[in-house]
Amino acid sequence: MEEEIKKRFDAQDKLLEKIYVSAEKTRKYFLVVFIISLVTFVLPLIALIFVLPWFINVYISGLGNINI
Asked: What pLDDT does residue 12 have?
């Protein structure tokens, strides 16, 4: 009886180790997806904050030079 319980515990330990490895891979995958999303979405928004005022200034000053 005791030997059977020990075998079950050993089997459960192996399965728990597999679950832990799988969960760590999933955690790392989500971290990479989060970083890629941050780079592809948030950084262009930050760049737009600086580029848009410059573009509007250049566009308006260009319109001011038009003689009709």
From this structure: 97
Q: Supply the pLDDT for residue 5.
A: 94
Q: Tell whether the torsion through CA atoms of 28, 33, 37 and 39 is positive or negative.
A: positive
For the segment 14-44, what is each residue's pLDDT rounded down to a tens digit? 999 999 999 999 999 999 999 999 999 988 9
Q: Which two tokens stand for residue 12?
A: 């459960």
Long-range pairs, 2-6, Cβ under 8 A, ≥24? none
Sequence ranges of the domains in the chain: 28-59
**Secondary structure of the chain as H, E, C letters:** CHHHHHHHHHHHHHHHHHHHHHHHHHHHHHHHHHHHHHHHHHHHHHHHHHHHHHHHHHHHHHHHCCCC
